[in-house]
Amino acid sequence: MPRDSAIIWQNADRTVTIIDIPHSISCAQTLGNRPHPGSLLSIPPLEKPYVTREPKNASKQAKLAGNTVEPRLHAIYASAIENAFASISTTHNDQWCFRRPFVTQPPPRSKKRKLSSEREEPASSDAAQAASRPTEVSVDFLPFESTPSISKIDGVRSADVYDDDEEENFASAAPDVTSPVKMSLVHPKDQKAVLDLLIPPKSSFVLGPVSDSNNFRHSVQVQAQKLDVPKKFDLILMDPPWRNRSVRRTHKTPNSTYKVSSSHDDIFSMMGKMDLDMLMADSCLVAIWITNSPTIRELVLGKGGLFEHWGVKLVEEWVWLKVTKDGEPVSSIDSLWMKPYEVLLLGRVDNGWQQAPRQEQFQSQEESSADDEVKRRVIFGVPDLHSRKPCVKELIEPMMPDWREYRALEIFSRHLVAGWWSWGDECVKFNWQGYWQHDDSSA
């Protein structure tokens, strides 16, 4: 694959892919074949699988089994993964991730300290590899104690970036801009706290809580009137902060700002009130990351669930298998403690749209007809910073009505994407220049 692609290997029908996660975000910062802004700082690729101790007590095994993927569904995923490995083994003998510059822990600093000229230098490979199982940058790089819901935009008076003159509740790269542009975000309560960002071309964002759906829809309408573009989206992608016990336990530190919901019902209620169906174009593709909890899957796909609420029908499932730098699953496929995969559910607005015929079946003949209607793809990727998912722009564009001209929205995002809308209280986090190494040695 060319350097402007994050895909390391892919089979002919795109059902099996090896992708480099940080590079997928880098490539998504530009349009076409234009150079991306550099290398996104990462963590060392995992060298060996994690050692997990499975419970020997039958009652504990049963309890863990009830909190993870339902056995019949897990068997389908395991079969898909086995077939994907078989497909890769015959043709791929190369790397499973690109070279990565590494994040180092920055020294403590006052939130009032201007960050415009600061950027952490990547650690040496040897020093980074010596760290024991790094899972997240231990100090949040954002200079704010909490992201403001409505931010004052500073340095936006050029033609490159504009904001909503009426309420200043969204910002967007000007439509004629073709490369990332710089802008500065100023904390509304502290004018000395400045965050220098790189804004991808033709991207727009609302930096604020997703609970304020009226504000977001107003922003979309304002832009539509200014630029004469549709008010609805062909793609809505989201990674909700699902309740996760292990995350809540490991991120109870003063420096951690990783957020998860307090309960499944809270996040379900919030998403149900976002009126996303009002933003969906005909045949809109809706993609949502879920954990391996059967409860969460039911909240999305079950009777009265989010897909039914939005009028969406499940058409595909993408299984992201987390692997080491040598292509081994990060844990046993059958582990009760920690499944080495996460799932992206993809549905279409159910208005008579028909899916293209399947070219490959992962399921056996004994599975239900409902399962047979769902296409499954497997994505291999070496894990990156905690909660950083593969950017699926390159993988999902072939499913768009026109991959060169479509409207996309990502919710709960932590980075912007060229040509897309982003919405969330951390949506510019990884666009801070301090997360980037600006050189020509990426990939």
TrEMBL record:
One of its GO terms (cellular component) is nucleus. It holds the Pfam family MT-A70. GO terms for molecular function: methyltransferase activity; nucleic acid binding. Residues 99-136 are annotated as: Disordered. Signal peptide: none annotated. Transmembrane segments: none annotated. It comes from the Eukaryota. Belongs to the MT-A70-like family. This is MT-A70-domain-containing protein. It comes from Cladosporium halotolerans. The lineage of its organism: Eukaryota, Fungi, Dikarya, Ascomycota, Pezizomycotina.
